[in-house]
Structure formats: C-alpha cells, structure tokens
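Researcher: Next entry in the queue.
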Amino acid sequence: MTYRTSLTALALALAGLVAQPPAAGATASAGASSVRWKACPDYSDEVIRGMGVAEDKVAAFHSLMKRLECGTVSVPLNHRDPGGRKIDIAVTRLAATDKASRLGAVAVLPGGPGNSGYLDPVLRTALRNEQMAGLNERYDIIGFDPRGVGYSTKVACPMSPNGPQEPGTLTEEAARKTYDAQVAANQKCGRSDPAFLGQLTTENVARDLDLVRTALGERSLNLLGFSWGTYLGMVYRSVFPGHTGRAFLDSVAPPWTRIDEHAKGAAEAAERNFGRMAAWLARRDEIYGLGATARQVREEVAKLVRAYDKTPKTYTDLQRPIDGSAVADLARRNSTEWVRAGKALAELRTATGTTAPPTVKEVLGAPMMGTPVPGAPEILNMTMNLAVACNEDSSRADFDSAWRAYQQLVKRHPATGRAWGVPVMCAGWPLPVQQATLKRGSGSLVLAGHLYEFMSAYDWTLQTRRAIGGTVYTVADDVHVSTTRVPKCAADVVRYFETGRIGRGCAGSPLPS
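Model: Structure for this entry, 513 residues:
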C-alpha cells in the first residue's frame, strides 16, 4: 500500500496563530463546518533550507508563504457519530492567480501514511518547477495534514524502540526476538488510546477531506495524489464519486492492503531493477571494478552481501554497522543514486581501517528521509503510519509464516533481499481490521506507474486499473513519485488538469551519464 519506514517522528506544535478574516470563496454551505482561518507559520531561512528548499528558492518560498492561507476545519473523530468528539484538520490554500479563468481546486494528497501535506501547495507545486507552478494559475491548490499528523489533531503512541539488531546474518532466534518485541510494542500502542487510534483509517481521512471540500465551498475536488495519497485518492473517489473531478495519481499503490504481499511485490521489483543497475555498472567497469557483465556484477554484489553478513564491520565514524543488509541496501537504490551507490560498493570490496570509506559514509551515514527538522512542520508521524497500516492490514502474520517469507525473499533475491526485514510490522496489533471498499468509477482518472521502481511496483498500477478503471500513464524510470519533478512529465500533468487529456507516458528521470 504505502511505504512503511522505521523513522522516529518528533511531534511539533505551532503556537501564537492569529485569527484573520475568511478569504473570498471560503464560506461553507449551510450547516457545514467552516474554515477557521489563521496566520500561517513563519519559518526561518535555516528551517526552510532544512526542509530541502534550495538556497536560490528561499526568497520565492517566503513570497509564496505570504500568499498561502492557513486554517483548520473541525470534523468528527468518528464519522459514524457526527455529534460526538471533534478533531481539527489543518488546511492550506494557494489561491489561483488567474481568477478570471479559474477551473477549481486541486487537493494534494500526501504519502505515508503519516506524511504532512500542509506545505504541499508550496513545495510540491508552486516551488517545484516552472511547469508545476503553472497549475496554480487556474487552480487553487489545497494542502492538508491528515488526521494524526502535523498541525492536525494527533496522539503520540508510546512506542517501545526495539533497539538495533545485532549485525550479521539474521538468525531465527534473533528474528523471533524482534517479532516478540514488535508484538509487545504494537499491543502497548494500540491499547494506549484505542478511541483515537481506531479511527486512523484511509476512509476516515477521505471523509475528512470531503468536509474540507464543503468548508471551502467547492462543489468538487480534483486530486493530485502521491504514494499512499494514491490509495487515499482511490478511496475518496469510491466514497464520493460525485464530488471527484480529475484525478492524477503518481506511483500507484495496489488496490489491496496487505503488508506481507506489499513486501513480496516490492522485493521482487527491487531485484529486477538491480539488473538494470548491474548492467549500468558493468558498462563502467573501469570505474567501479565490479564486473564487466551484468552477471558478473550480480555475482560480485551477492558475494559482498554474504561476506559482510559473515564478518560485519563497525566503523568509528558511522553509527550503522556494515553487514549484508547494508550492502543490499546499496544495491536497491534507484538510478539517481547509482553513481554514489556504485562507488560505495566498490569501496566495500577493499575497505580496511577503522573509519568508513568516504562514499560509504556519505550514503549510509546520511540522515534518513523523514528525519524531523527542528522548527519545521512534522515530516512523518509514525503513530499515524503504524495505526493506518495496521488497522487496514489483514495479514498480521504469525512468526513462523513471517520467517518462512523472509527466508524465501533472501533466497530469491541474493543482491537486494537482505535489505528487507521480516514482515512483522503489524504483528499483535490489537485493533480490528478495517478495509475500505474500492469501486469502479466513470470519472476521469490517470494512474501514473513507474516501470522499474520498487516502492510502487508497476504491476500494482495495472492491478489498480483492473479494479477501478482509469488510464495508465507509464513513466519509464525507477524513481518514486518523480512525475511532477521532471519538467516534460510535469507539463503533461498540468495539461491534464487543464484539458482532461493525457498521453501514454513520459521518459521520467534520466539515467546518470
């Protein structure tokens, strides 16, 4: 479904927001909640750069923040009990610059589950590139933090960190300890606030979004979804077909929600894509020295996995021990990282000494994506990530099944398989399974699948089309949610929202030269 990580989220609160009058067009329909507009946050240049904004775009970020409208919408915690407890959904809007030719509103659906979408109108559209900035000419761009994330109402689950695993070959005994610890942590988390955690589902987020639509005074919403946001888009379209306009979903999730099947499909796609990486490295054997053919590179990397599992290395300047899982992690990088990953693999062939080789340190010592930036909006809320994943996961495998699945995965995928752990994320989760029902619709829908990526395997795009319809737009790369980042592809996205027409696909991110 989406991309579960092992990141630790830091809950951030925003204080001192000052109320301001509603903007034009913000009046909600009779009887519905309205938007409580407030002053937007004021971020320092240091924080803005920490969010990944390039130095030459910091001034533009400040300028866009002056245009951004920020507020909250009150929604029921339990949509089956609309008169009960209320929670707040944080909402942002970047109004269309060409009001005379305005076509409507595009809601940006963030990934995760658990990613913030509060600044998506700025970061994912207006500031991304010239093409995506054009989307804001005739469309309002709507961002939001889903329930459980960022500036919206959330809870902090008392997760018990399992601690780092012993480096080296993962044994059944060590895996069982991890499994038992996961069960204990999940039970502690799930029972800490079941009234709130049990309401963290994709369908509830979709229902929240429809109340946001009503509060904004929009008859319908167009959808631009990324990663988990594609599944959210599918659910919203299924529950509210009459309120859904055009929908473009990038890096499409499967039409089902099983952690075990997700791990299996992603692992298969990662090993296939390593074949492309191996061929690319082989053509540059004079640089990397990993083999002159793709087969030789495959064998060399698999050999490195086994060697580092047998004899892990710990460097004084690197927190992460280097074992087979670290080598396999390098082997499953996408093409934007092949140059650095290839250098790191080459360094590991001959590494000596107590400090990490330079590229190994650069790649494997970098902060993980989603690491909180002090003073910035929350990037990823792990409580929401866990709760949505596990509330919707019907697999919840027992240890024996999970251990067999892991062994098969490592055997079938010798280069990349060790990068995946035993699929036990939702083991012991105490709350009932809640799965949305997807429906085929007649509205305009584009499913952007990336031929070679593993985070959203291309076959999932085809499965989703068979389940709910739509047009497949094929991106010939291996880079997750790259469509709006590549100017030629982004131009297709904007043209689609303006005209409803879309081609068959685009080249996506180019291979490194």
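Model: The beta strands are 36-38, 69-76, 86-94, 104-109, 139-144, 221-226, 244-250, 445-450, 471-475, 505-506.
Researcher: Noted, moving on.
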